[in-house]
Amino acid sequence: MSTSPILTLKGVHTHIGAYHILHGVDFEVPAGEVTMLLGRNGAGKTTTLRTIMGLWQASQGQLSFKGQPLNGLATPDIATRGIAYVPENMGIFSDLTVKDNMVLAARAARHAGELDTQRLEWIFGLFPALKKFWLYPAGKLSGGQKQMLAVARAICEPRALILIDEPSKGLAPSIIQNLVTAFNELKRQQTTILLVEQNFMMAKALGDSVAVMDDGRVVHRGRMKELAEDESLQQRLLGLSLGAHQ
């Protein structure tokens, strides 16, 4: 049984230039859960995340976080409300060290000495490679380590909601499992996650609820477990089944 929503989208439309990308998106993100946002390429998933963050403004509809409207707010104002965003391109600063990347992400810290030591050790527990490469330029990290840094930057301070766009893309299975473990730990810490993902086994392992998009609309909402157990529904909504990815 789902909890009350922390984030709600009602009838959200987004235009990018002359292109009408989102066509009335409706779904809720229950507090304290991992919600999967699934769909074929080009369905509008990334646009939905970027609209929530105010990187693109909704042309119609309502977005609310903890019951307060997000419409019209600038991205920094949305971030200060407790929402973090990990984009598909990770958004890290390649020329800066891992340490400097973390300091920049922490609103309460002007230098490394002001980082929350207890939280930093918790993050190192999730991603030991970041401690090992603390003084390395981020651009010299492996793809998996860069993704770990991107997630670490989003959680360097407590956030109520994290939006994550395809974190497993191009990563080895062992790194993906590391991310699954980290996301489950975040959920235990009462952090809500909205996760766009193409790896269906990761979706099955993590997801509590799910929204499936097609052509700029949400065409299915429900519990991830129900979708994972219904191969005909997977085939109809996504064009393939979770069972094919064992």
From TrEMBL:
<dbReference type="InterPro" id="IPR003593">
    <property type="entry name" value="AAA+_ATPase"/>
</dbReference>
<dbReference type="InterPro" id="IPR003439">
    <property type="entry name" value="ABC_transporter-like_ATP-bd"/>
</dbReference>
<keyword id="KW-0067">ATP-binding</keyword>
<dbReference type="GO" id="GO:0005524">
    <property type="term" value="F:ATP binding"/>
</dbReference>
<protein>
    <submittedName>
        <fullName>ABC transporter ATP-binding protein</fullName>
    </submittedName>
</protein>
<dbReference type="Pfam" id="PF00005">
    <property type="entry name" value="ABC_tran"/>
</dbReference>
<comment type="similarity">
    <text>Belongs to the ABC transporter superfamily.</text>
</comment>
<dbReference type="InterPro" id="IPR052156">
    <property type="entry name" value="BCAA_Transport_ATP-bd_LivF"/>
</dbReference>
<keyword id="KW-0029">Amino-acid transport</keyword>
<dbReference type="InterPro" id="IPR027417">
    <property type="entry name" value="P-loop_NTPase"/>
</dbReference>
<keyword id="KW-0813">Transport</keyword>
<keyword id="KW-0472">Membrane</keyword>
<keyword id="KW-0547">Nucleotide-binding</keyword>
<keyword id="KW-1003">Cell membrane</keyword>
<dbReference type="InterPro" id="IPR017871">
    <property type="entry name" value="ABC_transporter-like_CS"/>
</dbReference>
<feature type="domain" description="ABC transporter">
    <location>
        <begin position="7"/>
        <end position="240"/>
    </location>
</feature>
